[in-house]
Amino acid sequence: MNAPRLMRLSMFVAVLLTLGIGTGGCQSTMASRVVEQSQSGSSIELRVGQELQVKLRYTAGTGYVWEASDNDGQVLQQVGTPRNVPDDPGVIGGTGTQVDTFRAAGTGTVELKMVYRRPWETDVAPAKTFQVSVSVK
Predict the structure, then answer these.
(1) What is the spatial distance between Cα 125 and Cα 58, in angstroms, rounded to a whole number?
(2) Burial class (CB in 10 A: 0-12, 13-18, 19+), 122
(3) Which of 94, 74, 78, 75 is nearest to 86 (CA)?
(4) CATH architecture of the domain with range 31-136
(5) Are the beta carbons of 119 and 67 closer than 8 angstroms?
(6) If you placed Cys at 49, which of 10, 27, 74, 106 could pair as Cys (CB 3.0 to 4.6 Å)?
(7) Range with the lowest mean pLDDT among 44-48, 67-71, 75-79?
(8) Residue spans per domain, the chain
(9) CA–CA separation, 32 vs 18, rounded Å?
(10) Beta partners for residue 51, in sequence order
(11) What's the burial of 100, exposed, middle or buried (CB within 10 Å: 0-12/13-18/19+)?
(12) Contact 43, 132 (CB under 8 A)
């Protein structure tokens, strides 16, 4: 094999390894699933390692936040902290979307429940709830 051809081949192999192709790295390239408020009550399927983004509406300045409840982390684990995306960043007390990310950690089925409440009002029913059944294969 001549030197230029050997160099091209080694560069090709290096690119494949960097992308994780053939090394089990394809799990990280699975597309995230996205669910929104209108999909509450639905069922979704994920694969181990796949991420789920939950996008729920909020109003800033009210004290209300969306929180995950009753999740032991065996099947679905929350990744990082929620991210708030305001509709209009220049408006104080405006509306937006809270984005929570979860990763499918193990096989099984779990009910992912999110509640919209003020964290200090522990004896008050949530203003809103969101729930999806998540099955991880």
Answers:
(1) 17
(2) exposed
(3) 94
(4) Sandwich (2.60)
(5) yes
(6) 27
(7) 67-71
(8) 1-30, 31-136
(9) 21
(10) 103
(11) buried
(12) yes
Q: Which amino acid is at 92?
A: I
Statement: residue 63 has pLDDT above 60: yes
pLDDT at 24: 44
Query: Is residue 98 very low, low, confident or very high in pLDDT (cuts 50, 70, 90)?
Result: very high
* Length in residues, the chain: 137
Residue pair 105/137 in contact (Cβ under 8 Å)? The answer is: no
Q: According to the model, what pLDDT value does residue 72 have?
A: 82
Token representation of residue 67: 């929180």
Instruction: Give the 3-state secondary structure of the chain.
Output: CCHHHHHHHHHHHHHHHHHCCCCCHHHHHCCCEEEEHHHCCCEEEECCCCEEEEEEEEECCCCCEEEEECCCCCCEEEEEEEEEEECCCCCCCCEEEEEEEEEECCCEEEEEEEEEECCCCCCCCCCEEEEEEEEEC
Residue 131, amino acid: Q
At 29, the pLDDT band (50, 70, 90 cuts) reads low
